[in-house]
Amino acid sequence: MFRFNKDMEYALISLVEMSRQKEFQLLSARELSQRYAIPFKLLARILQKLSTDGLIKSVKGPMGGYRLNEQPENIRVSRILMAVRGEERIADCMSPGGDCAQDKIGCIIKPLIQVFQDKWVSFVENTTLDEFTGSNGNG
Question: What is the CA 20 to chain-centroid distance, rounded?
Answer without folding.
Answer: 17
